[in-house]
Amino acid sequence: xxxxxxxxxxxxxxxxxxxxxxxxxxxxxxxxxxxxxxxxxxxxxxxxxxxxxxxxxxxxxxxxxxxxxxxxxxxxxxxxxxxxxxxxxxxxxxxxxxxxxxxxxxxxxxxxxxxxxxxxxxxxxxxxxxxxxxxxxxxxxxxxxxxxxxxxxxxxxxxxxxxxxxxxxxxxxxxxxxxxxxxxxxxxxxxxxxxxxxxxxxxxxxxxxxxxxxxxxxxxxxxxxxxxxxxxxxxxxxxxxxxxxxxxxxxxxxxxxxxxxxxxxxxxxxxxxxxxxxxxxxxxxxxxxxxxxxxxxxxxxxxxxxxxxxxxxxxxxxxxxxxxxxxxxxxxxxxxxxxxxxxxxxxxxxxxxxxxxxxxxxxxxxxxxxxxxxxxxxxxxxx
Length: 383
What we know:
Elements: H1 3-12, H2 27-32, H3 38-44, H4 47-62, H5 73-89, E1 93-102, E2 107-110, E3 113-115, E4 118-121, E5 126-134, E6 164-169, H6 175-185, E7 189-193, E8 207-208, E9 224-227, H7 229-236, E10 242-246, E11 250-261, E12 265-275, H8 289-301, E13 309-316, H9 324-331, H10 335-340, E14 341-346, H11 377-382
Parallel strand pairs: 4-8, 5-6, 6-7, 7-9, 12-13, 12-14
Antiparallel strand pairs: 1-11, 2-3, 2-10, 4-9, 5-10, 11-13
Helix pairs in contact: 4-5, 4-8, 5-8
């Protein structure tokens, strides 16, 4: 086994750290000893240790509106907890900043009752109170929906009122095309509800509406919100007062958390990472408090190790908004710094109660994937 992969094995034990380990070393022993073998590390990275970090994430969410989403205080509290825990273990911690455009969840309120909604990038902002106007819906046969895709879909519909909300169904064309057509017809807001033609197209729809099919910016000026298929059907029946609200974007700076365990060989870096943020809808203690907690406990229990290769831990921000924190980190590395990274292992939702033991097909040797993974995937799979 080559030296550059020895620490990959140590990092890989994090996969099972969300399961009860056979612990023969007591807490006091783990506090003082050097966990420089896989067996020692597995004894000290315990379910209780991981659960304690998850409880801290839940507490951060409970104290901050029920979530830990990037751009909101629950994420800041999560970052603080990671930093404090790592520093207490002896790490020098780096806060890696990146620019982030925060978008609060939009809302649809019907006669005072708030619906579950989806969000669209590229939307305009504002709050509109009015009635919905259905646009060429295909409720009886959702698979045929082309709602809002053509300018002609809006012919004969009266959008001359002060607060008209276009109600459109997913299907056949870009979300941006539907929204631009609705705005051109005079709508002051737009709702796109899910298509309803399969089990995966029932819940609130979200998506990207920043560009038109030709790649030009959509420049949508009206609030655009997503809804579920059942709610869309109910809205199409009419007779309700509807409020659509999209808050304006907030430009902010968020942080990834990076901690490194220096090795004798600084030119081989083994990375283990997990995204720290949740969605705005909840605390994210599974997605991805499991991965974040597992690598945190592994880092704490490895703090006294003097590894052959350098080990780097990373907690990413704004992953739920489009891999923003991790992408910014990679884009900020020089080619020399990238070349130093021997491998990267990602830990995402590893605490499922219905888990299975699988290995990703890094080289797509089974021929059922989209092709080989990124460079190095085949080697990690083989190991």
